[in-house]
Amino acid sequence: MQKLTRIITLSVALLMISGCSYIGVYKRDLPQGNLVTEAMVEQLRPGMSRSQVIDLMGSPLLEAPFDANEWDYVYRLDKAYGGVKQRRVTLTFQGERLVSIEDEGNIAGNIQLPKDKGVGSRVEGISDIQEDPIDNVTPDRPGE
Fold first, then answer.
1. Computed over its alpha carbons, how large is the radius of gyration of the chain?
2. Cα–Cα distance between 90 and 71 in angstroms, integer?
3. What is the CB neighbour count within 10 angstroms for residue 97?
4. DSSP summary character for residue 105
5. Are 77 and 111 in contact, with CB atoms under 8 Å apart?
6. DSSP3 helix / strand / coil % (the chain, rounded to 5)
7. Which positions, given as ranges, span the membrane (predicted)?
8. Which of 22, 26, 83, 89 has its CA 20 to 30 A from that of 106?
9. Alpha-carbon dihedral sign for residues 35, 36, 37, 42
10. CB of 84 closer than 8 Å to CB of 77
């Protein structure tokens, strides 16, 4: 009987320990969308052409499905152990010219991206000091 009690106690203890974790799960900041800065929005002017807006802001994340005259630039940063910061700039065109600029969120606020990792995935085997191997490609055959 005493052996059965020990086995049950040990089983319950192991079951409880396996389900509970004090360490926690690793999380990372998750940036999504078009990075929209205050400087970019300040350069927008009514009367700009669509191509000028694309040169300044990049391609829009969203175009209204039923109205091609409305472009949305949305940036969302989901902090790993904090809140969510979201910015949105909606541009309305009439024909080929920018007519209206509306923004939501704290455009003036500064969003800091991690400097040590940057944005995007890392290429295995390349340290931060090495140059990008694509820039230093040499032809395999002479004369190319």
1. 26
2. 6
3. 13
4. S
5. yes
6. 20, 25, 55
7. 7-26
8. 26
9. positive
10. yes
